[in-house]
Design goal:
Length: 422
Amino acid sequence: MKFGYALRPGVLKQIERIETTDIVMGIPCYNNEDTIAHVIETVSGGIYRHFPDAKALIFVSDGGSTDDTREMAESVPIKPGQERVISIYRGLSGKGSAMRAVFEAARILQAKACATVDSDLRSITHDWIKSLLDPVMEKGYDFVAPIYYRHKYDGTITNNIAYSLTRALYGRRIRQPIGGDFAFSNRIIKNYLSQDVWMTDVARFGVDIWLTTIAITEGFNICQARLGVKIHQAKDPGESLGPMFRQVVGTIFALMSVYKTVWKEVHGSMPVDTFGPNAFLEPDPIEMNLKRLIVRFKDGMTRFGPLYQSIFSPEVYRNLKESVAMEEREFTLSLETWVKGLYEIAATYDHWRHHQSDLLTVMVPLYLGRVASFVNKTRDMDSFESEKVVEQQAEKFERLKDYLIHIWDNRQSREDVVDDYS
């Protein structure tokens, strides 16, 4: 069923009774009873401290939590001059539908600024609220992306795919394009709501990269806000990727097809305006099971080897096979192999019309192999030092962009080869 609104009728009436507001703070959530109270309390306090004269709505957009998330959200005291609405959104299950409900509320209330923060945050502070909202409220920006200090093994999809691809494709150095905590102007929200994507993977975990890509490609004023250390419920990618990997990477690839005339004309990259103090703190460590990552890479090479041979160039396939023979402590999947391989998969995705989901599935072992290689390379580095490795990777994506354009324009579809593996 296709819904015209993500807001339910009763919630819509609640919002209409508020009439107007200056700030909408959205909190998408699902089964976050342990953290939601802290997030709401901090959001409320941050608005009250930094924007004391502003009318504000704290909008909790819930995915139908089966724990006590909504009850906890209702029980937290909020500061004077603020409203609170707690809603179970309508639409596909996922963060994107939750964001859509927040945007609808902000649009109806004609909010000057809207920000969203994740509901599992343990490190959110009052200053986060100021850092996110100030560029929209005071400086005229339409889109504010976060910059966090994260442990070197947190955000592996960002570090190995999303940041490098976004930078190389669209020429803007947005460090956390799927960061989760953003701010928006009313102008860009109107654009987001006009797009016919809310019944696709954008309505799930693909929304963050979609928001960022739209902001860049459609000419909005963008910037970044330094928020400090991010502490949340991080996971070992070798243990549980869930649907997030497929939805994020699938959205990136789908947007490459939509905006191919844009990114083909982009060369190099530019930094974006960035606000906030640049004082690095080492985040708490995150354990990574290196052995599991390598085993899953090698199992994938065994299972999908003939399919990989049909997808990848002889050079990339040969280098992948060489990695299979490596021992754990010496394991590496070279940067050039990873960049060319990812570009070849992206070009294949554009040509495959019926097996795109299968292509994302067979990509997972290669991604885990690249993460394992990153773990080995940065073993003796702190998170600040490992950031240089991420930057070197992004620069490599830029240098090999002509390779992407060449294979994109010359790749032939071979979807028939996947039938034996799906």
